[in-house]
Design brief:
Strand content: 15-25%
Number of helices: 11
Distance between the termini: 50 Å
Shape: elongated
Structural class: alpha/beta
Number of strands: 10
Helix content: 40-55%
Radius of gyration: 26 Å
Strand order of the largest sheet: 1-7-6-5-8-9-10
Largest sheet: 7 strands, mixed
Amino acid sequence: MPMNMSPGEQKRAKNIIWTAAEDYSVEPAFVSADEKSRADFYLNLIVGSHSDRANKKNYEELRKKFGDEIEERQRIKEKESHACTGIHKENRLFFAGAQIDSPRYIKNKNFYTKNKQVYDSLSCKLQEKLKTALAHRYSEEHVCTVSGHLISKKAWKLPVLENTLVFRRKTEQYAPSFSVDILLDASASQMGREQEVATHAYIVEKALSGCFVPCQLWSFHSFKNYTVIHCYKKYHEKTNLENIFSYQAGGWNRDGLALRIIGQEMENSAQEQKLLLMFTDASPNDERGISAFAQYTGKAAVEDVQAEIRSIEKKGIKVIAVFMGSDRNTETAKAIYGDSFVRITHIEQLAEALGAVIQKRLHVV
């Protein structure tokens, strides 16, 4: 910013840029002044127009790659106004759906299919662990059926009315008091591991479905100044479990912004209590270099993630990290997630390790 510009001229220059960009959330990397330190209308107009064109170009690239967004753009802009603040002020959001006709979907699905028996066994194992943790949430109910213990007062209905519902049997009824959201890091660090990550997520969501726990499934990565949020399944959807096989990695990752967005999305849950499972390598990193303001790496990124976790946990959301990173990021994972993370180095560990930490968290929910 020019050294001798008065606060009023600086504000005027920003207003010119914002008007040209048609976006008042833009934080310009610089403003231009003339020889008298006054806001240069023409040059600031170019800065604003360039910002607008760049955003539109990036958005069209995303539409070409992922198709139309799954929500109205105006609604997404409202989410941007609430979420893209502070260190994320220059970022935009793009909400994409599953791409079940993509080559990646086929590759991920084939990986699972080749060892389906093993992975289904792991899912059943996790489901049993979850049922153990949820045992106190089940209630017994007596229903009339065609078999079981005979109800003497209704026995006459069988020969007279040919009503076969004269038996009583106990059934377990489950009214879930919590929901689970699964959030996957889909940055370039996961490239080459998409099959494993997608299968991990499928095992977990299938186990949750078997316990009648409402579940949403998401992934995130950054593309230029956009954070792309993929939604594979919403709470009310029962048949979209395999959408996760369209999971594909690429780009950077702004973990704090993703946590902020999903924390807001979890407010749609009708359940009193909520869990967030985040599959991560504990390396929040976005070094696209749009401006010094846009840098997101190192200590600043870690502190941002820590702050977002504190913020969403104040809302009653319990965060559990499934750490899939290297040894060098173990200390970072501990610093961010404390004792609420589990490290998975082999898929066979998933049911036992994740089941244990979910049980632990449920006891303090």
